[in-house]
Amino acid sequence: MGRPKTQSEARLDAAWPYAATAGFYDEVLGANEEVRGHWRKLTESLAAMGHDGLTRRWHEGRRLIHDNGITYNIYGATQNTARPWQLDPIPLVMDPDEWKAIEAGITQRAMLFNTILADLYGPQRLLREDLLPRELVLPNPAFLRSCCGILPQGGVHLHMYSADLARSPDGQWWVLADRTQAPSGAGYALENRLVSTRVMPEVFRASHVRRVANFFQAYRNALQRMVPVRRENPRIVVLTPGPYNETYFEHAFLARYLGYTLVEGGDLTVRENRVFLKTLGGLLPVDVIVRRQDDHFCDPLELNSHSMLGVPGLVQAVRSGTVSVANALGSGLAESPAYAAFLPGLCKELLGEDLKMPTVATWWCGQEKPLAYAAEHLEDLVIKPTFPGTGEDPIFGAGLSSGEREQLIAKMRANPGRYVAQEQVALSTVPVWEGRALQPRHLVMRVFAVSTGSSYSVMPGGLSRISASLSNMVVSMQRGGGSKDTWVLGDGPAPEFSLLRPPAHPLEVSRATFDLPSRVADNLFWLGRYTERVEAVVRISRAILGRVFQEGDVTRTAGLNLGLHVLQNLGYLPERTGTGAPERELLEMMYDPASWLASNVHQVRRVAGLLRDRISVDAWLILNQLDQQFSAAAPPEMLQMGAAQDRLDRAIITLSAFAGLVMEGMTRGDGWRFLDIGRRLERALQMAELLRNSLAEDSPADVGVLEAVLEIADSSITYRSRYLTSLQNDLVLDLLLADEANPRSIAFQLARLQEDVDQLPASHTAIRRPTEARLALSLLTGVQLSDVRELLRDGAAGPSAALEALCARLIKELNQLSETLTRAYFSHSPQSRQLSAP
């Protein structure tokens, strides 16, 4: 990489061969293939660490991406739409002087678009004086007539603006696209920075890279200024379309980082022209909504009646001035690429300045001369729809045959206003690390600006995206592209910075824990259930595996058969039709990615992903690790048994770590309570199934069965400390059914369930016990009044009908309790919710 001038650069040439690609501007190499000055510190550091050094460091980077669950949802993928975030370890380095010019251009551009939107939704002078064609505004689906006349707080329509930049072969930066609706990528840029500083901390510090935290503080300040009624601690929420959106990870990450509540449309409601957050404790007023979904989906009453993602009545609440939305509703109007053809004139007219950051040459085909030019020079242009959101992809004229060009020209002439032609830019190249070598890829950089009231503040860096291959000029994460951290160099060491509020702003003490949306409570409840469901299966499987290769005595066989019988009755194993080896069936369940066990493990991670803004980082790491343990490929057949035993042992440790974190790390609010209710309810269900399939079976339980039951219930030590080696049915049943001191017994779970349910909001406000409280009390009382000896009396020489009836009643009423809680707190409807897995 470059001609050797120093010893470090000489080593770099030998270890890191890289050459500029003819016809493209290369970000690293300048004239005569020399390393550009602002890249020199990084290239010297890469030469010093070598490929082996970078490999070791990047192993840590990949682990962080995996553990933190940094993903990007791919639309249209048939399987596993959530893909790990693609980050290249070598950052893009920006010269400080060059960045100053970019900052000035982006600041001006954001102010210009904000002024344009204020006019189009206000006096509309631009349309009256023909400064902007009416055909680009009035027919545009993004023009929301219901938002005309609405003046946002402070007159700011664009609270965040972003632009995609590309560099042409002459070194000039050009704007490819403007993002004014709900710009995405700032959260991913921050995650890229967090990973790169962990991978190369000393290089980062020595390079004096400017930090991005100031940008997010400016964003928080901008949102604070939007509050309609000034208050010290306003309620700000981040509105997401949900987990299937392509950038859902970023929504959850930013909500957590900024300290705001992540909500979906169903979590909000409008009452008397005010927006409220629906929580278990009642309705809480919302001051600011940071929307991460398109305009049309925000209000089904006034914008799109077919959408279920929005908040009915939101437009009227905004019109009434009781809530602010960032970016302002209707701001997607400015994303039409056709505006670029008129921006120089609009900038001169509205700001009295020349446009500092030019857009790539653009022709709107709705005018005669631009249409003629586009038809004549089609092979050098990219054809885009005038109005984004139509689902039409850009068409590269160079890739069309002569016949296809003629067809496209005919379509353009038939409906010219629908098309925009833009010059195709030969995107600059930047090295990426691939297969222990540097390969050139094309670059597009997305930069961000946030409102400061009178101007805009630009993030020192941004989201640098790279193409999937050198031959592909389309830079898109949806099409296999990747990303880089962006290092903007400073003049000296970057000052430390924190988003924490300084102590000069005191707040009143609060211990409120009731601002929990029903959707979040539902997810916490099912997170508890799924973790306990997985633990039950893991403990049964471990008991079976431990007996497979024991000496073939009657005790061992009885315990082995018990475990297989329970797994079959729960639906985790198919009914055995022959005399095949039981370990083979168990290994198939362990390693089959489509098995019920794998499905429940993936459900744990899925639900945890929906709670990224609610659970701690440690809790996420633990649950993500559990998913990784069961996602690993099966080892060679000869090693599968030992690997399976190790997998089960590690799963027990992981689940125990999560249970400990829940008990010792979570505040005892409604969120913790619903998680605990889910755990206790599911553990009681699993224990009832175990007792039903062991002690209430057709033949009296022998020593082998009792040993297996105690091991599965993790109660062997407790039993032996009381009764030594004497194994009796009634004593085992008492320990696992009625002993409230045993954290594995049914009675213990039911006692905790009653305590938790009695602390729920409905129990505080109701004069009479609500249904769920009565059910919980009935369950506990039924077990407390049971006589263990009577339950087993008729089981001395046959099945125990009394124990079977008790277990069946417990299972039925526990499921009723689950459905009652769902109706009362989650769905608020009379329909019952069916279990999604056995």
Topology:
Layout: H1 7-15, H2 40-67, E1 71-73, E2 82-84, E3 92-94, H3 96-120, H4 125-128, E4 160-167, E5 173-179, H5 186-199, H6 201-206, H7 213-225, E6 236-239, H8 248-258, E7 261-263, E8 268-271, E9 274-279, E10 282-285, E11 288-291, H9 314-319, E12 324-326, H10 343-350, E13 362-364, H11 368-376, E14 381-385, E15 395-396, H12 402-414, E16 419-423, E17 429-434, E18 437-451, E19 456-458, E20 463-466, E21 482-484, E22 486-488, H13 518-548, H14 554-569, H15 582-591, H16 596-610, H17 617-631, H18 640-665, H19 670-692, H20 703-712, H21 716-723, H22 729-738, H23 746-758, H24 761-765, H25 771-784, H26 788-793, H27 801-826
Parallel strand pairs: 3-22, 6-7, 6-11, 11-12
Antiparallel strand pairs: 1-2, 4-5, 4-18, 8-9, 9-10, 13-16, 14-15, 14-16, 17-18, 18-19, 18-20, 20-21
Helix pairs in contact: 1-2, 2-5, 13-14, 13-16, 13-18, 13-19, 14-20, 16-17, 17-18, 19-23, 19-27, 23-25, 25-27
